[in-house]
Amino acid sequence: MAQQRRRNTGTARRGPGKNPHQAARATPKNSSQASDPVVNEPRVGPRGIGSGLATEWPEDFRAGFTSFVGRPNAGKSTLTNALVGQKIAITSAKPQTTRHTIRGIVHREDAQLVLVDTPGLHRPRTLLGQRLNDLVAETLSEVDAIGFCIPANEKIGPGDRFIATQLGQLQRKPMVAIVTKADLVDRSTLARQLVAVSELGVETLGEEGWAAVVPVSATGDFQVDAVADVLAQAMPLSPPLYPDGELTDEPEAVLIAELIREAALEGVRDELPHSLAVVVEEIIPRENRPADSPMLDIHVNLFVERPSQKAIIIGRAGSRLREVGTRARQGIEALMGTRVYLDLHVKIAKEWQRDPKQLGRLGF
């Protein structure tokens, strides 16, 4: 999680307010033909939602919020990126890569899906872990539909059953089981997993089970459109919630911090991902630059809990920190559309995952 503390040049993409699911929906006016466009006044909601929105939409248009849930490293962020068509959520083989809800927007002719990628549900061992679980629970209670991601290449375990049981306790809403990483198994293994997932739905949700069970490979572009089709049908009738072409409403500072954290997580030991937090302190346009060659100076602090972790991030004579900057810079320049200079500093915040004050200071 990142916060810009002084000069904010990275404005938040439009969204439905602090609570991502409180966008006001307008009920389409009745029409003699379902395919006729509906003309209405632009809606105005929290943080200005409605500005730039289409004023015409088919009467049968659907729009709403879907949350992907699953245990850590179940493929939620990879699927979010594949559906949106652009990288908005970082991915890593390390557990607990996602630490806050990330909203991606899928635009279709018949629907608009707002995908809320959540941290993986797990048994918390720190205050940070508990807060992440609370964030997931709050999100699930407010979205229109839920996609439960279960990897095809791993047997259903206690973590999956725990999540499915939690879903069964929610107010009834469409729940789709998504069997991810289908490209990693053969057809017979995939078929057995689909049956096992279906049985899990009946066991935890009742005889109706899941609204659908869909195998998908986000990296292999297998069944990605099928997932979108199923989720679109689960959305309520509603006009679009976001302007056409908008892919996320995450503040640029958050996206920048996530890209840096992703680069820093590559090739590190398992304990470090939990101890690393990234905060964007400033984004400042470089002065006296040619008009056709602007540059941004981005000042960033990377926080770890112990001196040994600081040494890992920095590397011998700063070699690893330079690699982190090089890897992250490519994605950040693509995001910002301009050259950037990254000023990275590594600091120690002892036991920050268990300290309420430090968690608040780091944006959790």
TrEMBL record:
<dbReference type="GO" id="GO:0005525">
    <property type="term" value="F:GTP binding"/>
</dbReference>
<protein>
    <recommendedName>
        <fullName>GTPase Era</fullName>
    </recommendedName>
</protein>
<dbReference type="InterPro" id="IPR030388">
    <property type="entry name" value="G_ERA_dom"/>
</dbReference>
<comment type="subunit">
    <text>Monomer.</text>
</comment>
<dbReference type="Pfam" id="PF01926">
    <property type="entry name" value="MMR_HSR1"/>
</dbReference>
<dbReference type="GO" id="GO:0005829">
    <property type="term" value="C:cytosol"/>
</dbReference>
<dbReference type="GO" id="GO:0000028">
    <property type="term" value="P:ribosomal small subunit assembly"/>
</dbReference>
<dbReference type="InterPro" id="IPR015946">
    <property type="entry name" value="KH_dom-like_a/b"/>
</dbReference>
<dbReference type="Pfam" id="PF07650">
    <property type="entry name" value="KH_2"/>
</dbReference>
<feature type="region of interest" description="G1">
    <location>
        <begin position="70"/>
        <end position="77"/>
    </location>
</feature>
<dbReference type="InterPro" id="IPR005225">
    <property type="entry name" value="Small_GTP-bd"/>
</dbReference>
<feature type="domain" description="Era-type G">
    <location>
        <begin position="62"/>
        <end position="240"/>
    </location>
</feature>
<feature type="region of interest" description="G2">
    <location>
        <begin position="96"/>
        <end position="100"/>
    </location>
</feature>
<keyword id="KW-1003">Cell membrane</keyword>
<dbReference type="GO" id="GO:0005886">
    <property type="term" value="C:plasma membrane"/>
</dbReference>
<dbReference type="GO" id="GO:0070181">
    <property type="term" value="F:small ribosomal subunit rRNA binding"/>
</dbReference>
<dbReference type="InterPro" id="IPR027417">
    <property type="entry name" value="P-loop_NTPase"/>
</dbReference>
<feature type="binding site">
    <location>
        <begin position="117"/>
        <end position="121"/>
    </location>
    <ligand>
        <name>GTP</name>
    </ligand>
</feature>
<dbReference type="InterPro" id="IPR009019">
    <property type="entry name" value="KH_sf_prok-type"/>
</dbReference>
<dbReference type="InterPro" id="IPR006073">
    <property type="entry name" value="GTP-bd"/>
</dbReference>
<feature type="binding site">
    <location>
        <begin position="70"/>
        <end position="77"/>
    </location>
    <ligand>
        <name>GTP</name>
    </ligand>
</feature>
<keyword id="KW-0547">Nucleotide-binding</keyword>
<keyword id="KW-0694">RNA-binding</keyword>
<keyword id="KW-0699">rRNA-binding</keyword>
<comment type="function">
    <text>An essential GTPase that binds both GDP and GTP, with rapid nucleotide exchange. Plays a role in 16S rRNA processing and 30S ribosomal subunit biogenesis and possibly also in cell cycle regulation and energy metabolism.</text>
</comment>
<dbReference type="InterPro" id="IPR004044">
    <property type="entry name" value="KH_dom_type_2"/>
</dbReference>
<feature type="region of interest" description="G5">
    <location>
        <begin position="216"/>
        <end position="218"/>
    </location>
</feature>
<feature type="region of interest" description="Disordered">
    <location>
        <begin position="1"/>
        <end position="55"/>
    </location>
</feature>
<feature type="region of interest" description="G4">
    <location>
        <begin position="180"/>
        <end position="183"/>
    </location>
</feature>
<keyword id="KW-0472">Membrane</keyword>
<dbReference type="GO" id="GO:0043024">
    <property type="term" value="F:ribosomal small subunit binding"/>
</dbReference>
<dbReference type="GO" id="GO:0003924">
    <property type="term" value="F:GTPase activity"/>
</dbReference>
<feature type="binding site">
    <location>
        <begin position="180"/>
        <end position="183"/>
    </location>
    <ligand>
        <name>GTP</name>
    </ligand>
</feature>
<keyword id="KW-0690">Ribosome biogenesis</keyword>
<dbReference type="InterPro" id="IPR005662">
    <property type="entry name" value="GTPase_Era-like"/>
</dbReference>
<feature type="region of interest" description="G3">
    <location>
        <begin position="117"/>
        <end position="120"/>
    </location>
</feature>
<keyword id="KW-0963">Cytoplasm</keyword>
<comment type="similarity">
    <text>Belongs to the TRAFAC class TrmE-Era-EngA-EngB-Septin-like GTPase superfamily. Era GTPase family.</text>
</comment>
<feature type="domain" description="KH type-2">
    <location>
        <begin position="268"/>
        <end position="350"/>
    </location>
</feature>
<keyword id="KW-0342">GTP-binding</keyword>
